């Protein structure tokens, strides 16, 4: 064997051992010792994160947290969901109150570099829009000049709103509130002409209005809102676990691995599927997980497509089309690196 190649193999093996040891410290160790994952969620948004009357949480962001718990504990229920306002979400993550923030949070440069945080991927590509009453006869955001706009404080929507109206040389009045609930109530009470937030949120909140059919979402999308899970700086292993949980769900959909057939896939001879399922290779150990970590995720939670459809897609009340959130093989933006 070439001595340089041999040296490289030794170095790789040493790095893997070190990585496995490091995986037993930090956030993962805290979560394992505690026996439950603390997940920062929203205060209630249909399709993304909302509790029912019994306190059972459902949603696209909720299922990401359940998937992380499944990878670690082989149990998607070992999650405590902690409702956080837009204003408090980052400080709660920074302080260690939550291990992971998964609540429709936009990935921006300032948040990624100035807050001591890391984004672990994009689980929903979104954009900001406007909701208005049909009776106003407005069919374009460009006709909102001089109008009043309800929005939530502490979000990217305020800056996007200002940018949009300034760039189009239009005047407007902003009516801002501390919580999303207050913002929606103010809009329905007629305190403003339009309500603005991420388009996914508009479709979700419209369902809660007294007469949803009386309101329309305008066609303009005025911003890029890549939404995704967030962790603290300084723990690369924990970042890897959250990042690869999302990637595993995407890869599973691409490989045709579903909650219904994942057990059958244990018999597959396909090398990609064998690596994914954990019957070949040791891809979980460097992260401090079992080698069937990805199998656990799909077994308990499902692949990305399944989670999307039941929470926000055609199997939900929102009925949002996959659009940009389709796999790259279907013309969308969702693309995951391979497990190898």
List keywords for this structure.
single chain; three-stranded parallel β-sheet; alpha/beta; D-Maltodextrin-Binding Protein, domain 2; globular; 2 domains; disordered N terminus; 14 strands; five-stranded mixed β-sheet; 340 residues; 12 helices
Q: Can you describe what's shown?
A:
With 340 residues, this protein is of the alpha/beta class. It folds into two domains: 2-125 and 227-330, D-Maltodextrin-Binding Protein, domain 2 (3-Layer(aba) Sandwich); 128-223, D-Maltodextrin-Binding Protein, domain 2. The protein has helices at 3-22, 26-34, 60-73, 89-95, 109-114, 157-167, 180-188, 199-206, 236-255, 271-277, 293-300, 304-311, and strands spanning 37-41, 50-51, 57-58, 79-83, 100-101, 117-119, 124-126, 128-133, 148-152, 173-177, 194-198, 215-217, 225-227, 230-232. The protein has a five-stranded mixed β-sheet, with helices on both faces. A three-stranded parallel β-sheet has the order 4-1-5, sandwiched between helices. Strand 9, helix 6 and strand 10 form a beta-alpha-beta unit. Residues 1-24 have low confidence and may be disordered.
């Amino acid at each position: 064997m070439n001595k340089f190649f041999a040296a490289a193999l030794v170095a790789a093996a040493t790095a893997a051992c070190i990585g496995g040891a490091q995986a037993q410290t930090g956030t993962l160790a805290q979560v394992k010792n505690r026996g439950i994952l603390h997940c920062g969620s929203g205060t209630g948004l249909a399709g993304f994160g909302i509790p029912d009357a019994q306190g059972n949480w459902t949603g696209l962001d909720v299922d990401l947290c359940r998937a992380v718990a499944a990878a670690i504990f082989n149990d998607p229920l070992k999650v405590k969901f902690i409702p956080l306002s837009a204003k408090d979400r980052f400080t709660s993550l920074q302080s260690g109150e939550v291990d992971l923030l998964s609540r429709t949070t936009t990935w921006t440069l300032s948040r990624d570099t100035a807050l001591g945080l890391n984004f672990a991927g994009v689980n929903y590509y979104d954009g900001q829009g406007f909701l208005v009453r049909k009776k106003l006869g407005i069919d374009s955001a460009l006709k909102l000049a001089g109008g009043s706009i309800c929005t939530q404080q502490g979000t990217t929507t305020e800056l996007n709103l200002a940018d949009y109206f300034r760039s189009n040389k239009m005047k407007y009045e902003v009516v801002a509130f501390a919580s999303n609930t207050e913002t929606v109530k103010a809009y329905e009470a007629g305190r403003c002409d339009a309500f603005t937030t991420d388009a996914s949120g508009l479709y979700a909140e419209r369902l809660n209005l007294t007469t949803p059919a009386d309101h329309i979402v305008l066609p303009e999308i005025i911003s890029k809102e890549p939404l995704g899970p967030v962790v603290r700086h300084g723990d690369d292993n924990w970042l890897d676990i959250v990042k690869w949980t999302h990637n595993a769900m995407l890869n599973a959909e691409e490989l045709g691995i579903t909650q219904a057939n994942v057990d059958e896939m244990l018999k597959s001879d396909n090398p990609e599927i064998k690596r994914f399922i954990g019957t070949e290779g040791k891809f979980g150990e460097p992260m401090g997980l079992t080698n069937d970590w990805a199998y656990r995720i799909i077994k308990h939670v499902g692949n990305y497509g399944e989670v999307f459809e039941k929470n926000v897609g055609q199997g939900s009340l929102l009925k949002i089309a996959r659009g940009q959130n389709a796999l790259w093989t279907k013309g969308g933006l969702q693309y995951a690196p391979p497990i190898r």
